[in-house]
């Protein structure tokens, strides 16, 4: 087997284990993928599209790419369209924007740009999912993302919680699923390299100035102290029921 085939086999095994463990996919699901264009969402799209062909479970899948016109983060929509066409997945492209005004007089009231950008992207995802009749939205967060969020909540908010693998929305008939939850970022990064995933044209100007960046550095220090730390944190999340929640 080539390195690409070996990596895909490992990634797919963890993907299948995730949806079996947390019941992420079921017969007659209609799934909308949030396709940002980064390596994580590209892998998610590839894994879900190939699983849908097997028809076990039996489900439909579509993808949406939300462009934020006032943020210089940018991915080639032509590449994303070709990527989805090759996988046989319909792609929807939506353009939106948000206003960010930070003032010295009221800094506490100003929402950070990352929060606003994420909120508006999610709003477009929810709206399109309901228009298409989807019952699930799939996001490309991997195990490292989920653990980093756990640490952020502990350090900055004083609570033990994270982005769950399965989240049932109370106010709308939608579930959020994270099928990459058992996959490590390092494996995704290497698979993206050997598979020739096209990189983003421009990166978000705020991506290196966030709490998440600081937490990632903290987490790297923790792993140097204990290489098994990720598994300890994951077991704690499972024991406290934090990986399947209702919101």
Polypeptide structure, described:
The chain is of the alpha/beta class and 247 residues long. Helices cover 48% and strands 14% of the residues. The protein contains eight helices and seven strands, in the order H-E-H-E-H-E-H-E-H-E-E-H-H-H-E. The chain has helices at residues 3-21, 39-54, 77-87, 113-132, 143-157, 185-195, 211-225, 229-239; strands spanning 29-34, 59-68, 91-96, 136-138, 166-168, 175-177, 244-246. Strands 3-2-1-4-6-5-7 form a seven-stranded mixed beta sheet, sandwiched between helices. Strand 1 (29-34), helix 2 (39-54) and strand 2 form a beta-alpha-beta unit. The longest helix is centred in the middle third of the chain and has 20 residues, at 113-132. The protein is globular, with a radius of gyration of 18 Å. The N and C termini lie far apart (43 Å).
Structural class: alpha/beta
Would you identify the regions where 5 or more consecutive residues have pLDDT less than 50? none
- How helix-rich are the residues, as a percent range? 40-55%
Give me the side-by-side strand order of the main sheet.
Answer: 3-2-1-4-6-5-7
**Tally of extended strands?**
7
Largest sheet: 7 strands, mixed
Anisotropy-based shape: globular
Mean pLDDT: 90
Query: How many helices in DSSP terms?
Result: 8
Q: What proportion of the residues form beta strands (DSSP E)?
A: 5-15%
H/E element sequence: HEHEHEHEHEEHHHE
- The radius of gyration over CA amounts to 18 Å
Distance between the termini: 43 Å
């Amino acid at each position: 087997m080539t390195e690409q085939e070996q990596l895909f086999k490992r990634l797919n095994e963890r993907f299948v284990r995730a949806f079996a463990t947390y019941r992420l996919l079921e017969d007659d699901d209609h799934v909308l993928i949030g396709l940002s264009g980064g390596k994580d969402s590209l892998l998610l799209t590839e894994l879900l599209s190939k699983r849908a062909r097997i028809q076990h479970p039996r489900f439909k899948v579509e993808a949406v790419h939300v462009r934020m016109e006032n943020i210089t983060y940018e991915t080639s929509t032509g590449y994303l369209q070709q990527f989805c066409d090759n996988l046989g997945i319909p792609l929807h492209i939506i353009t939106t924007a948000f206003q960010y005004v930070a003032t010295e007089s009221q800094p506490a009231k100003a929402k950070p740009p990352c929060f606003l950008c994420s909120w508006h992207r999610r709003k477009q995802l929810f709206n399109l999912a309901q228009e298409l009749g989807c019952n699930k939205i799939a996001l490309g967060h991997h195990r490292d993302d989920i653990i980093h969020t756990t640490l952020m909540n502990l350090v900055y908010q004083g609570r033990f919680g994270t982005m769950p693998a399965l989240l049932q929305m109370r106010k709308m008939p939608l579930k959020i699923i994270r099928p990459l939850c058992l996959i490590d970022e390092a494996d995704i990064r290497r698979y993206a390299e050997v598979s020739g995933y096209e990189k983003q044209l421009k990166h978000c100007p705020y991506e290196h100035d966030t709490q998440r960046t600081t937490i990632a550095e903290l987490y790297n220090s923790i792993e140097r102290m204990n290489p098994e730390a990720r598994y300890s944190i994951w077991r704690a999340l499972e024991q406290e029921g934090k990986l399947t929640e209702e919101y």
